[in-house]
Design goal:
- The chain has about 575 residues and is of the alpha+beta class.
- It folds into three domains: about 5-165, Beta-Lactamase, CATH 3.30.450; about 220-380, 2-Layer Sandwich (Beta-Lactamase), CATH 3.30.450; about 385-570, Alpha-Beta Plaits.
- About 50% of the residues lie in helices and about 20% in strands.
- A hairpin with a 2-residue loop joins strand 13 and strand 14.
- The two termini are about 75 Å apart.
Amino acid sequence: MPEVNLIALLSGSYDYGLVGLSLLAVIVASAIALFVVRRAMASQKGGLRGGREREFYFQTMAEGLPEIIWTADPNGADDYFNRKCFDYTGLTLEQLRGTGWTVIVHPDDLAVCLAKWETALRTGDPYDVEYRLRARDGTFRWFLCRGKPIRNSGGEIVKWFGTCTDIENQKHNQQVLEDQILERTVQLADTNTRLQEEMLEKDFARSELDKQNERMLEDLKKRSERAAMLAKMGELLQSCINRDEVFAAALGYAPKIFPTVPGAMALLDASRNLTEVIGSWSDCHLPALVFEPAACWALRTGHPHLVLADDSTAPCSHAEGVKNTYLCTPILAQGETLGMVHFQATDETPKMDASELSFKTTFAGQVGLSIANIRLREALRTQSVRDPLSGLYNRRYLEETLEREVRRAARAAQSLGFLMIDLDHFKNFNDTYGHDAGDAVLRETALFLAKGIRAEDFVCRFGGEEFVVILPTADLESSRARGERLRLKMRELTIMYQGKSLGMVTISVGVAAFPEHGTSPKELMAAADAALYQAKRGGRDRVVVASAPVTDEAVISGASQSAASKSASWS
């Protein structure tokens, strides 16, 4: 390979695989061998300039490889390592030179490593060994080390060239594969053992075995049907939007999945002090329909609790008087116990084998998983529309709601009020008391506004210290009066921070209404914002009604003016 092309190959941005790197190392080894021989010949002939050029080519290729590159003299003393080695080990050339590299070899691998290296030095054969090298952080990784003797024209070894390739992932995958093979082997051995036992049983009692096979096939068919029913229930539960739907669906499917097993479902109340049976199937008998959580071992431990017939070791007191075997399995959602499902054996099917227990715990698990999914959806929905600091609806929700309410008001030919509220001198709270105090003011203001509106109104945090209140069906005068009432009540609000009052907090309010000040959300917001701006310029702590509708052109120019002036005059 030409020297220039080889250097370009090493300097390029390629994604080589492990096999590709090993092949590349072999190619580079051959090229570097040629360089070393030429360099030796150049040294003998006094070709100092040519030797330096080849030394430069050698280092360029070595540094371009993603592997550790090393060279050693004919006696095996290492005299060169590329930058990859220093970066990985954290050691210097002086520390690694000669046999200093042995300190980074794992103690368990050192003897084998040295033995193979001594053999290679003695025989002149290529060197090939796997061992672990210590990184600069003290951890060890597996490497495949290869060494190749470089000979001159007379056949004498003039240099050793080698590579160290990181094979940690390959070793890990190999171990995983070996574990899987071992596991499969054990499984096959167990299967073979069972097959042999079955063959012996067939030899001694073929007719009985045929009957057992028939019963087994029937049982498998029933299990398959139940598994399909359980999967169908799971699909339905994933579409439920609240807890009541989940429990209703579960109670509806329970007698279909467990037609011969009576059962009941009980849930903890809001206080978590009582558990109430909300439904049962197949004439399940439970002495107590309401009981304390401590009366059920499954609720106590958070794990399924099986009580065998006539076993008095740890019975559940809520099932006192139940003579057959029964199982209580908890309903868990995100680690929280919501209730439990109770299953009873019957005289016809007195036992609950492992497969039965698995079906029952899976049934309760699907109920809990559905509740957890509902909670997750509710949490994600809340996070997407709620402001984390104030707990109010955020600007995204404001835009969606205002768009909807404007359309609704237009269809019903009704009014719609819109208040834009800003805290006066809010910057002073941050500068005087700190940002934590400012956050306290925002939270208390949000709570005050949420309590001061009607059930059908919406209050949102618009951004910073600005809030917005949407008043469905409210006309302009009612909206102005609502804003005035909020302004006056705000003056009476006492906000405490670290045991001290932050003083009186006032607000300025801009009022707009549909359709007087616009027929689109953009026009309403611009009109209210302009009115709020006038309230600020007029001295703050006041309510100002928008004077005229704001057109789309005025919205654009007003937005620029508002943004430029707020930071200067509203702080």
